[in-house]
Amino acid sequence: GIFVLIFLNSIRQIHLAKPIELLQGSSVGEKEPKAKWFIALLGFICLGTGYYIAVTTTNPIAALMLFFVAVILVIIGTYLVFTAGSIVLLKAMRKNKNYYYKTKNFISISGMIYRMKQNAVGLANICVLSTMVLVMLSSTFSLWFGMNDIVDNYYPREFQFTPSEYSDKDIKNLKAWINNTLDDFDQKPTDTIEYTTLNFACIGKGDTFIVDKANSTYSNMVNDISTLSFVTLDDYNKIYHSNVKLNDDEVLICSSREKYTSPQLKVFNYTFKVK
Length: 275
Description:
The protein is α/β, with parallel strands linked by helices and 275 residues long. The chain contains eight helices and six strands, in the order αααααααβββαβββ.
């Protein structure tokens, strides 16, 4: 399909060209490229928007959706900046007579205007490919050297057991099965922790967390999706070997992302003070 498009474009160019222009083409000098301000501005906007999305997106779910958008914007912006932005910059430098009419600047700027017209796409290709290589290498090394830390953070114990239902009978049966399995291998449990958690997904809006599956308006708020996990104060003190005390309307908060700065938390029609 690409070769067909190139062939059709070549036919179009030959059809529009005049025979006299073709015969005199070798003697005609190269035209100076025009300064395309709109394309240059569009390139800077695309480049800035792409990097802004990459830097400001912290939600993992939103990052998966916006990653390719940011990549495409950066690639488009890079090509536009090299092809149009470089010409605009060089011509702006040429208009500055105090800077342009100097021995070391006069020839270099004049030559760069024509060289950028010929080599802008090639330089943009090198820039994009180099960036991709650096991103792949840095991501690979980060995952490779940080894998042990990731595993230790998510799974601080060798084994983790979760009952299918949180009834007393299911928990009792699970404990019995664990003890029987350890006895079969002549092993004793060490460094064990037992606690109960309440986990659910919700929509975070400031200090308010909304849990309403029936409301379809919340399905599009991907950037605001959060996961809350609750543990009792007794379990918290047991896990961290602490002696924290809370009132009935107080909670402790630990955030895996940015620091939670609000003085209160609203969820399930309750308002808790953050200690």
